Give the backbone structure.
Amino acid sequence: MPLISTGVITHGARAGATGVGAFNVVQIEHAQAIVSGAETAGLPVILQVSENTARYHGALEPIGLASLAVARAAGVPVAVHLDHAESAGLVREAVGLGFTSVMFDASALPYADNVAATREITAYCHSHGVWVEAELGEIGGKDGAHAPGVRTDPDEARAFVEATSVDALAVAVGSSHAMLTRDAALDFALISRLRDAVGVPLVLHGSSGVGDTGLATAVGAGMTKVNISTHLNKLFTRAVRGYLDTHAEAADPRKYLGPARDAVAAEVARLLDVLARPGR
């Protein structure tokens, strides 16, 4: 199946009041698991490669090309997305490789600087047919707009989208990156106000910290793209640890990475169903 734009997936989901899952790829097993889960669910999915992951691999190209290859071989629509890129050079590299969307994160900058940098990136990406997600926020380390207590103002969000022409906006509504428990309390009323204000798909970062009911309610309130990473990494690591705990002699990494891949695939299929059918 041809590679599909993140914008096509998320705009379609928004029109149908459903959500789409965006899951982070750390290594090729993640990409394979995410696509396998999407095929089981019969639903579209987004593979995300973050700037941190590109740094881990030494460059974007190795893991990026692997993700693109897995996506193109899939039996369901799959988009490949650059996540949390702070480097304009990395954005240009992703576009050159064939990524169909990018998330440019200038949220640590003052508002005016964020607008200027994001507008420049958006113009470049749109000239190459690539969809752009951006973020509003405050200085707050890794969490940025998703630090505890930070919230996105609907009026500022509307002005930001109009000034930058971005295709989607990551908003702060109560989630936080890298949560190990699924007990974040989202502001669903704020999600609805933001949905009405901005006119583009909303993106929920830090969704690993949100339980199934919260995810479904967030989609019903107006959230479209839902980013999940830490939750899947926990399952991956747990499966590896479980295998090695009972097979102390194991030396072939395929023996323990295989079960980890299967665990992630099963959870991706389940989560996609939660997001796609929020009113069930």
User: Anything to note?
Assistant: Residues 70 and 129 are 21 Å apart (CA to CA). The first helix runs from residue 6 to 15. Residues 138-143 have pLDDT under 50 and may be disordered.
